[in-house]
Write a structure and sequence with these properties.
Radius of gyration: 19 Å
Distance between the termini: 51 Å
Strand content: 25-35%
Number of helices: 9
Shape: globular
Length: 263
């Protein structure tokens, strides 16, 4: 089954074309990672998939239904979105933030039921933040806060999870925790994960499919060992790289080669 289908998607801001006739499918249950240099159109693409932006041209289908035919509540029952940056304006507790994920499922009065509270507890256990339940969000570290936002998305009970650079500015241990969590959501809960990343080696280790964007177009798409090759990546990122195969896991590893080593 196809979770997301994109056909001839085009988006411009003024005279600048950000996405140019993009076409691709994401199979249900995949871990699908979008990579590409800054300005290649990654975040615009993700916002189009969430419905936060309306497509100027082309079609997006979500779980077999045209995105334009969803109302916000119905779409939120299918798709959850974790943005890169979230402004914390009010001192909400972790539990309160996670419970916000139940909003698309609440009745007319918007009052949480015991089942909603149970789902919030479950989401906090999956993301290993149950011990933070009573803490304020603005008191947490970056890695802890990211897991709270993912728990909120899980509590939404989506079929598709969209994330914009969830590992940015995190240390290696927190990056591994987030990526392992995404793999768990895919394998144990059947959630389709679509994620933007600048970390090519994380994409190599975890992705089922990698889509490479370059100047608003798809440069390549496929399994990591097909996509992450020296010729393509050097052309897309316009820098000197070395790509070899890891002795653990047999996945491609990408290394930057400083200019001084080329002399």
């Amino acid at each position: 089954m196809t979770a997301i289908s994109v056909e001839n998607l085009t988006q411009s801001f003024g005279r600048r074309t950000v996405l140019d006739r993009i076409c691709f499918d994401v199979a249900a249950g995949q871990f699908f990672i979008i990579i590409g240099p800054n300005g290649s159109g990654k975040t615009t693409l993700l916002k189009l998939l969430t419905g936060l932006l309306s497509a100027q041209d082309g079609d997006i289908t979500v779980m077999g239904r045209c995105l334009k035919d969803y109302n916000p509540r119905a779409l939120a029952q299918q798709v959850a979105y974790v943005p890169q940056n979230v402004l914390v304006e009010f001192p909400f507790s972790v539990t309160e933030v996670v419970l916000m994920g139940r909003a698309p499922h609440l009745g007319m009065l918007g009052v949480e039921t015991p089942e909603d509270l149970e789902l919030a507890q479950e989401a906090m256990m999956i993301t290993d933040i149950i011990h933070l339940a009573d803490r304020r969000l603005d008191e947490l570290s970056g890695g802890e806060r990211q897991r709270v936002l993912i728990a909120r998305a899980i509590c939404q009970r989506p079929r598709i999870l969209l994330l914009d650079e969830p590992t940015s500015a995190l240390d290696l241990a927190h990056q591994a925790r987030i990526m392992d969590l995404m793999e768990t959501l895919k394998n144990d809960h059947g959630i389709t994960v679509v994620m933007i990343s600048h970390e090519l080696n994380l994409a190599a280790m975890y992705a089922d499919q990698v889509l490479v964007l370059s100047r608003g177009q798809i440069a390549c798409m496929g399994a990591p060992d097909q996509v992450l090759n020296k010729e393509l990546l050097e052309r897309v990122y316009e820098c000197n790289l070395m790509v070899d195969m890891s002795s653990v896991g047999n996945y491609p590893r990408v290394h930057l080669v400083p200019k001084r080593f080329l002399r």
